[in-house]
Amino acid sequence: MNIGTKFRARVAKNVFGGDGISRVAGVVVFTPGVIAGEDFIGEVTHVNKDYVRAKVVEITKPSPERILPECSGSGRCPGCVYGHMSHSFEQVQKLNQLRDFLKPLGVSADQVQGSGLESAPESFYRNKIRLTMRKAGGEAQLGYVFPDGKMYELAQCRLASANINCKLRELLADPGFIPSMHDRMTITLRESADGVSCWRNNASKRMGMLHEKVLGKTFVVPAEGFFQVNNHGMSVLVNLLQDALRDLECQCFIDAYAGSGLFGSVAAAAGVKVIRGVESDVLAAEAAQQNYRNFGAESVEFYSGDAAVLLPELLNNAPENSVVVFDPPRGGMEGRAIRTVVGSRIRNVIYISCHPATLVRDLGRLQQGGFKIISARMIHMFPRSSHFETFVQMTR
After folding, report:
1. Alpha helices in the chain (DSSP H)
2. What total number of domains does the chain contain?
3. Of the residues 208, 232, 254, which one is the last residue of a structural domain?
4. Which of 267, 327, 277 is closest to 302 using CA atoms?
5. Which residue of 72, 92, 181, 386 has the lowest C-beta tally within 10 Å?
């Protein structure tokens, strides 16, 4: 197959990233904008050694799950790759994708389930968005920048909360707003329990801490600090963690890659008295320690720095009924961090991730160290986007 070749195909399934996968004359074809089960006519746009990419020319047999996108950016904006698909079928595809990722590790389909799917919001769920200003030739555009550098201009975002959209409309209605923005300047809109905050480029340290509500308690987080962008999804994560800690009768909780200490705070609220944490960001580390104590921890041991370097100190003399939670950046855990866990007395690990490829890599390494996967839960944290959150429980 060459660039420009047209073909007919049926979509076998939607793979991670949202593309439909088909086979044409033995060649694997990836096509965006199609749905599992559909028949379509496509045209090859890119040729690689092991596969080709294509675009849709015509949907000849639409899926009953196909809908009219509610956002004009659907299919063009990275956050809305599933805008043409029913919300329930999107969840099915993502759950199947997670099962496909974990199958090579010997995890059965029954061990991989969804959590909180029925009540997951479809739109207006994000508590944070970041937009970029582009100015050229006397014209100004504010919107999302795509991976290829193209801009999608917008006056509202169906993924952002209603309050963020309201604030965005206020900004755009201000005649002085656009002239005050420079080319490539970013503006962040962040909703918390304090209301909607906004700042240009990076937040000033003078902004201090934002406040959230977690389990009915006040949770502090730096303005630029990481916090789950979907409050419903965050609640699902919290409930899963609470249930796991109760079942494991956890006495010492180790919060690796702690951020502002969400998971350690949940553990403290669940009655775990000893909380150990590590975080490299200074402001987040400060917030985490404050949160741990506010949520009821009696003993807090905190280390500021690289988790991979400091993990041996966190795990040193940890009792066997300790639980360690890993929620690393998308790049996953460093090899030495995994080797430290494998060489420790720790028996129970919970791994939380929004990046399936590095998740599977790290789970495989932990399996080699004697851990086995008990269960995995897909959390619909990012509706309409290609991503999802995963909560994996392991033991040995």
Report:
1. 87-102, 162-173, 177-180, 231-248, 262-269, 282-294, 307-315, 335-342, 356-368
2. 3
3. 208
4. 277
5. 72
228 and 201 in a single domain? The answer is no
Rounded Cα distance between 351 and 367, Å, is: 13
Residue range 93-116, pLDDT digits in tens: 999 999 999 999 999 999 999 999
What torsion do the CA atoms of 34, 39, 45, 50 make, to the nearest 10 degrees? 90
Mean pLDDT of the 128-149 span: 88
| Residue 64 structure tokens | 């009953």
275, 194: one domain:
no
Can you tell me which residue has the tokens 């000033």? 204
- The CA distance from 262 to 310, in Å, is 19
| Distance (Å) of CA 300 to CA 174, 290, 349 | 47, 10, 20
231-248 and 262-269 helices, crossing angle to 10°: 50
Q: What is the pTM of this model?
A: 0.94
d(CA 58, CA 126): 33
Going by C-alpha positions, the residue among 47, 36, 40, 39 that lies closest to residue 4 is 47
Q: How far is CA 126 from the centre of its chain?
A: 11
Asked if 384 contacts 122 with a C-beta cutoff of 8 angstroms, the reply is yes
